[in-house]
Automatic annotation (TrEMBL):
Keyword vocabulary terms for this entry: Ribonucleoprotein, Ribosomal protein, RNA-binding, rRNA-binding
Pfam families in alphabetical order: Ribosomal_L10
Family: Belongs to the universal ribosomal protein uL10 family.
Lineage, uppermost ranks: Bacteria, Bacillati, Cyanobacteriota, Cyanophyceae, Coleofasciculales
Known function: Forms part of the ribosomal stalk, playing a central role in the interaction of the ribosome with GTP-bound translation factors.
GO molecular function, one term: large ribosomal subunit rRNA binding
Coiled coil feature spans: none
Biological processes per GO annotation: translation
Gene transcribed to yield this protein: rplJ
Protein name in UniProt: Large ribosomal subunit protein uL10
Cytoplasm in keyword set: no
UniProt KW Ribonucleoprotein keyword: yes
UniProt cross-references to PROSITE patterns, sorted A to Z: RIBOSOMAL_L10 (PS01109)
InterPro entries: Ribosomal_uL10, Ribosomal_uL10-like_sf, Ribosomal_uL10_bac, Ribosomal_uL10_bac_type, Ribosomal_uL10_CS_bac
Length: 188
């Protein structure tokens, strides 16, 4: 017996919810993968905030057809499809999939969708090569810290320079007085 209409609607609603929380969706052909291999893929993806969803193409088509951000995915819906729905760390998720793909040698990348754009494998790899959110935050923090350090050194240099100048005044004044006295002695 097949699923009831209510069960199908629930599946589509869950897919829509998961997609609404995702940044990137990758469609792969999982034909030939064992349950253990799919479990391995899921375990590799879990730390990256990615869900590996195996569902019927029809359910995914219903989930994305009304959403412009995900509609391009329909061109990848054929055959046995698994969907990698990336919520957090896009780079780590793609790298985890690539490592799995090298190990299993059974999956085929069909395409990806991000912000309403269909992506090929090279484009998805390029996105994976971008720095992670944490790396970008660290770079920005380092730049801000560098600016603050330079500013502090510059601000500290103003009173130090002023202090050296003030200390130089009596010495300069003393040399001037000695010069004037020497000149007066020479004139006398």
């Amino acid at each position: 017996m097949g699923r009831t209409l209510d069960e199908k609607k629930t599946i589509v609603a869950e897919l829509k919810q998961t997609l609404s929380e995702s940044q990137l969706a990758v469609v792969i052909d999982y034909q030939g993968l064992s349950v253990a291999e799919i479990t391995d893929l899921r375990n590799r993806l879990r730390p990256t905030g990615t869900i590996c969803k195996v569902t019927k193409n029809t359910f995914m088509r219903l989930a994305v057809e009304e959403d412009e951000n995900w509609r391009p995915m329909t061109e990848f819906l054929s055959g046995t499809s698994a969907f990698l729905l990336v919520k957090d760390d896009v780079g780590s998720a793609i790298r985890a999939y690539q490592e799995f793909k090298k190990t299993a040698k059974k999956t085929e990348f069909r395409g990806g969708v991000m912000q309403g754009q269909a992506l090929n494998e090279e484009q998805v790899k390029a996105i994976a090569d971008l720095p992670s959110k944490e790396e970008l935050i660290a770079q920005v923090a380092g730049a801000i810290n560098s600016i603050a350090t330079k500013l502090a050194v510059g601000i500290n240099e103003v009173p130090a320079s002023l202090g050296r100048s003030i200390n130089e005044v009596p010495a300069s004044l003393g040399r001037c007085i000695q010069g004037v006295a020497a000149k007066e002695e020479g004139n006398s």
